[in-house]
Amino acid sequence: MLFLPGNASMMISIFLTGLCFLFLGPTCCSGSRILVVPVDGSHWINMEVILRELHSRGHIMTVLRSDKSWYIPSNSSIFTSINVTMLEDEAADINYYNKMLLDVMERRRLPTFIRTFYQQYLITYMLAKGHEIMARSVSTMLDDPVFMKKMQDSKFDLILTDPALPIGVVLGSYLKLPMVFNVRWINTGEGHLTIAPSPVSYVPVSGSELHDQMDFLERTKNMLHSIYSFVEQHFFINPAYSDVFQRYFPPGTDLLSLELAADIWLVRTDFVFEFPRPTMPNVVYIGGFQCTKSGPLPVELEAFMQSSGEHGVVVMSLGSLVSALPRETTEAIAAAFAQLPQKVVWRFVGERPSSLGNNTLLVKWLPQKDLLGHPKTRAFVAHGGTNGMYEAIYHGVPVLGLPLLFDQFDNLLRLKERGAARVMEANSLTKEDFLEALKDILETPSYRNNIQRLSQLHHDQPMSPMDTAIFWIEYVIRNKGAAHLQSAGFSLPWYSYFCLDVAVLIMALTGAFVWASVLVCKVICCRSSRRKNVGGGDHTHIVS
Known about the structure:
- The structure is a single chain.
- With 544 residues, the protein is an alpha/beta fold.
- The protein folds into two domains: 33-289 and 464-494, Glycogen Phosphorylase B (Rossmann fold), CATH 3.40.50; 299-459, Glycogen Phosphorylase B (Rossmann fold, 3-Layer(aba) Sandwich), CATH 3.40.50.2000.
- 50% of the residues lie in helices and 11% in strands.
- The chain has helices spanning 6-24, 42-56, 87-90, 96-107, 112-143, 145-153, 167-174, 192-195, 216-237, 242-248, 255-260, 299-306, 327-338, 368-372, 386-395, 408-417, 431-443, 445-459, 465-478, 494-497, 500-543; strands spanning 33-37, 60-65, 80-83, 158-161, 179-183, 185-186, 189-190, 264-267, 283-285, 313-317, 343-347, 360-363, 377-382, 399-401, 421-423.
- The strands form three sheets. Strands 3-2-1-4-5-8-9 form a seven-stranded parallel beta sheet, with helices on both faces. Strands 12-11-10-13-14-15 form a six-stranded parallel beta sheet, with helices on both faces. The chain has a two-stranded antiparallel ribbon with strand order 6-7.
- A hairpin with a 2-residue loop joins strand 6 and strand 7.
- Helix 5 (112-143) runs parallel beside helix 9 (216-237).
- The protein is globular.
- It starts with 5 loop residues before the first helix and ends with a helix.
- InterPro entries: UDP-glycosyltransferase (IPR050271), UDP_glucos_trans (IPR002213), UDP_glycos_trans_CS (IPR035595).
- One of its GO terms (molecular function) is UDP-glycosyltransferase activity.
- It is found in: Membrane.
- Belongs to the UDP-glycosyltransferase family.
């Protein structure tokens, strides 16, 4: 055995410690300055998860928020905030969505073909007002020399934004910052439909409530939804920003061109959940990045879970955006829960249902991921938000869906198509139907088997979705952008993109060739006919 003097041993220890910091410490771009322009509500919940990971790696973040923000704190240990005028300053409060829910539930009684278009109209109406507010907000920022000097003097290395609301897109483009999107939705629907080729023959348009195996009528409906999205983008959304683009950007700039210039699109889905479709080099899939292993529950909640015995527990949450269902709906749900042998944990805000059973625990907030990962959990009654669907997949819990607004109908359709969920209409829900659906989810093994199969596929990746997201954010910082991953197709005019100019040329040449061929044939036939006529006339003269 070799013994070293104290100084030599200390030097080796220092050397080994240095190696550990070199290989295990923060990356070379740690300490980068990142400007973050998020979207409030549930979108902020998953954006904050990324910010915490970036903070742990030494990055310095500045978040733009509204002084009236619903979720984004003004004081945080992981970022500095700047209050600016945002959508929340002028828009209706969060109770607006409760009113919108009642309207949607009423219109869900319409035939399927019609109701999806009506829902899109409601969203368009809401977005049109929202974009007018956001255009004024971004104009106020760009017109404020003190604010803009602060932005420029901060020397940000990157802007991380959610393009569902385009303030960050416009501001980051004006500042000429490398841009990364944390995205599922943009102005007219799912972001993937904007960045990647999306044939309407098998790629369902957002809000259509269609799958990827469409018959003729379904493809017709999908095409109409695609046309509607085009009209929405160019006639309802772009005009709101025309003054901003005329004053601050080169001619020909519109919102879509700024979005397509983003370096990386971190898309909050993957192909375990989403239908297969074409993609692009700068699209990175991070579906379920916010999911983590379950942690311990509060003592009282853990005791409630354990008291369920072999029957287990049903967890119900309808998200953070809608705070209340109609009274008759909650009474039917409570009455159905009361007849189950399982215990129920229900995130509930509002007047306590009179039909509530002793087996049901009402809470204003619940640790959703910890409950879904608990071994006693048997089913998840959910509204179909992206975050909740991925947590159900991550932990392998079958879903009974009650979609209410926006993308929730499409999200639950994807799980239903994979045999991992059953979906009900909240507007026509009765105690008997809800109880039957609950028993079906709890007692039919295929639902649990299918969701656990999806969970297995989701976990079988070379890198976790979170590590993938952080890698590509830091990749853009290190390389000051990722322009080499952007398709040249985005810079082409529409007629060149679809090769319509080439098609016109080929058709013209083909037409000219056919015309020339017909003309030549006519000339040849005419000459041949003349020769025959001349030859026949001479013969007759000689005979006579």
